[in-house]
Amino acid sequence: MSSETMLRTENLTFEYIRRDEEGNVEGITTAVNGVNLEVKKGEFISILGHNGSGKSTLAKHFNALLFPTEGAVWVDGMNTSDAKNIWDVRQEAGMVFQNPDNQIIGQVVEEDVGFGPENMGVPTKEIWERVEESLKTVGMYEYRKSSPNHLSGGQKQRVSIAGVIAMHPKCIVFDEPTAMLDPNGRKEVIRAARALNDVEGITIILITHYMEEVIYSDKVFVMDKGQVTMQGTPREIFSQVDKLKELRLGVPQVTLLAHELQKRGLNIPDGILDRKELVSALKGLRY
Amino acid sequence: MLRDITLGQYYQTDSYVHRLDPRVKIVATLVYIVSLFVVDNFIGYLIAALILAVAIMRSNVPVKFIFKGMKAIYFLLAITMVFNLFLTPGEPLITFWKLKITKEGLKIAIMMGVRLVFLITGSSIMTLTTTPNQLTDGLESLMNPLKALHVPVHEISMMMSIALRFIPILMEETDKIMKAQMARGADFESGSLIQRAKSLIPLLVPLFISAFRRAGDLAMAMEARCYRGGEGRTKMKPLKYKQQDIITYVVILLYLCLMIAVGIIF
């Protein structure tokens, strides 16, 4: 494996054992079924899928919160199933969860951001430096003395992101970070994630079911029934509107409009991602 | 608003007492409470009153505010005093019908009253000038020696601070569930006490479920951020004694000696 690889899974399979009230085994659900994927350092990756497609279960493997039933996961060359790697994996691959309230531990913003470094045993003086630096990165420095209960959803998620950055990870997994936010909060969070990728060069893995959020990524994986069914650049993925519909995933409105126009016989290329592209494609038609 | 509720009654301002290390304040409060029980004479109470007055002055908390917080104990105070007044045997002062007030009764009633007022005022100065967070930190640090007896000191203090963090969130959630139930015709306000208690069940069940779900999520988020108990953990805001803390310790020690002396001599 080259040193350029941040994360790799090999034939990753994870099974939940369902039990009835007496604890007898009722059956086995395969949440993730033989997934192979590779993420390079500095990439922005999206994983798409509808509810129950196994994308969140997959994400929890990247942080050693779940361990594969079969196959293996390597984070920066470390096998997550190996007990001695677990804390290094969790430090290198940070995780931002869906519910902003349930992942903030501190009663004051700065204390929450300091929680990760405290756990890692970072000296006090350096904790303060890290807290200041990460709050500034997400633009929440002026709120450092506030109670998290007084912040909006988007702000809370930015605090959570700061809490992860303070641990100096190489990779951040966002597990549906925008699912509980309003459109403004969604924009805030996605902007923060993109900035981390562009400026700090941190590898980003974004798990989502909002199609609009994946158009900036380098690579998209689409999951269904625990398997990766499609992968490619956003343009490649969005060219296959009909297949996405089959997987119960809506495409961005612009892409859908372009697709419908194309079906009616207009000469528009596949995989239009934003308004600008559609406008220039339509302009091109006149000549 | 529900989300503005703070536990305890922290009074936000800056003062000598506010800046004291929480450990000093906890120890001082304990010493003060003990000292109230070693003396039972006028001079002792005078000294206790003096030191309390000094503490109030240096805390910048308005006296009115302190006594507002004591409303809850007026009833307790009255009962204690009345019982002591009438039920202490001794030399009768006034007698009417079957009740008699004795000289000893009068003395004990006044003493108990003063003791109770001092006790509550003294401990409320601590809660008024210390945030719940500082209190947990202080307690953790003071209980540290108990680790040798396998008391999970770090875990207890972590639990306390997480509980404090989630109280406003769960309050808000209760409010939300209540409104949702009311919108569907639930009645929380009328009926007998038993009926009202019964109507709380559909409120408690979803609240418990959501609290457990939150606990699960939080535990996962904590693990994801490398939480592994108190071992090898550093502190962002470590407690460090400053000069004023040491001075206060000395003052408290002198005060205790003085009170013991007064208790023995008089």
Number of extended strands of chain A: 10
**What would you report as the Rg of chain A, rounded to the nearest angstrom?**
20 Å
Strand order of the main beta sheet of chain A, please? Answer: 6-7-8-3-9-10
Q: How many structural domains in the coordinates of chain B? A: 2
Q: Which chain pair shows the most residues in contact?
A: A-B, 40 and 28 residues
Helix count of chain B, per DSSP?
Answer: 11
**Portion of residues in helices of chain A?**
25-40%
Mean pLDDT of chain B: 85
Q: State the order of secondary-structure elements of chain A, H for helix, E for strand.
A: EEEHEEHEHHHEHEEEHHHH
**Oligomeric form of this entry?**
heterodimer
Tell me the number of structural domains of chain A. 1
Strand content of chain B: under 5%
User: Biggest sheet of chain B, open or closed, and with what strands and sense?
Assistant: 2 strands, antiparallel
Mean pLDDT of chain A: 88
- Name the shape of chain B in a single word: flat
Strand fraction of chain A equals 15-25%
Q: Strands, helices and their partners?
A:
The complex is a heterodimer of chains A (287) and B (266).
Chain A: E1 5-19, E2 25-40, E3 44-48, H1 55-61, E4 70-75, E5 78-79, H2 86-92, E6 93-96, H3 109-120, H4 124-137, H5 153-165, E7 171-175, H6 183-200, E8 203-208, E9 219-224, E10 227-232, H7 234-238, H8 241-246, H9 253-263, H10 275-286
Parallel strand pairs in A: 3-8, 3-9, 6-7, 7-8
Antiparallel strand pairs in A: 1-2, 1-4, 4-5, 9-10
Helix pairs in contact in A: 3-4, 3-5, 4-5, 5-6
Chain B: H1 16-19, H2 22-38, H3 42-59, H4 63-68, H5 74-87, E1 92-96, E2 99-102, H6 103-129, H7 132-143, H8 153-183, H9 193-199, H10 201-224, H11 243-265
Antiparallel strand pairs in B: 1-2
Helix pairs in contact in B: 2-6, 2-7, 2-11, 3-6, 3-11, 5-6, 7-8, 8-10
